[in-house]
Amino acid sequence: MNSRPLPFFSSGLRLDADLHLPDDDGAGAPYPVVIPSSGYQGLKVIHPERFARALTRVGFAVLAFDYRGFGHSEGERGRLVPQEWVEDLRAAVDRTEAEEQLDAGRVGLVGWGMGGGVVVAEAAHDPRVRAVASVNGIADGARALRAMHDDASWSSLLERVSADRAHRSVYGRSRLASPWDIVRLDLDGHTDSYVGSELYKAPGFGSEVTLESADRLLRFSPQSLVHLLAPRPLLVVHGDRNALHRPEEARALYERAGEPRRLRMIEGAGHTEWMYDEHPTFRELVGELAGFFREAFTHTPEPA
To answer: Domain tally for the chain?
Structure first.
């Protein structure tokens, strides 16, 4: 694939981004575009670039970016707020309209993990997005977080979040916490192992996050917006043994969505242990995504 920097601004913050194009000397331009939305502690060099390597091979352009406050993007370090990520993703869609090599009339979103909820929330109020795919995503932040904790750690987190609200009101800043105090990985051994061996290779991964981030995640509920996608298509893909974001998250999105919609449970798959470029499960997912977006770009009416 051919890659080059393509930064853009969101809420006045300069976000670091790269445009990845098929290696065809421009023959397919203007290209249909897929924008990946990464998950918790996500960076563009992890799963967004993984999707880029795969999807550019089959004719799509991919715009991969770091959310505000992460990677080389501007913004407060440690501030991990999905509602603000929605604004960053909308700015990425805006950027496609200013690039001649991209077909802004054929834009799709694919979200991973927490990003699987972000893509739904963004597209719900953005008719420029023609199709949405949520992979191992969340439908409701409070429910998804609660499922990651035992009773003791859940009570502790809620107490810390409540105390931090008062602290912010006095001092104007949120306290920092380990990201794994909020999203507990140790109850999902496969994901915990993958994160330790693979994701920590990315500089900055695993950095502390604010307790306000947890507060805002508890109020993030894409399932309340997913019905607004119709008649644009939604693809929900989820590992049926996902112990981090439970399968009920996928079912909640699917059940509340309008048509056309599709639910695919990947048999025997957990959250992330299969996210390698050449893993058969990932390659199968890419094939399904490519077919889904091609069909959507062909048959979904363009926005007025």
So the answer is: 1
- Give the pLDDT of residue 300: 63
Residue 154 lies in a domain: no
Give me the CATH number covering residue 125. Answer: 3.40.50.1820
List CB contacts of 40: < 8 A, sequence separation 6 or more: 80, 113, 114, 179, 183
Cis status of the peptide bond prior to 30, with omega within 30 of 0? yes
Is residue 158 domain-resident?
A: no
Q: Which domain holds residue 11?
A: 2-145+221-299
> Is the predicted pLDDT of residue 42 greater than 60, yes or no?
yes
Q: Which residue has the tokens 């699987």?
A: 116
Neighbours of 53 (CB within 10 A): 15
In a domain, 78, yes or no: yes
- pTM: predicted TM-score of the whole model, two decimal places: 0.95
- For residues 27 and 98, what is the distance between their CA atoms, to the nearest angstrom? 19
Distance CA 36, CA 34 (A): 6
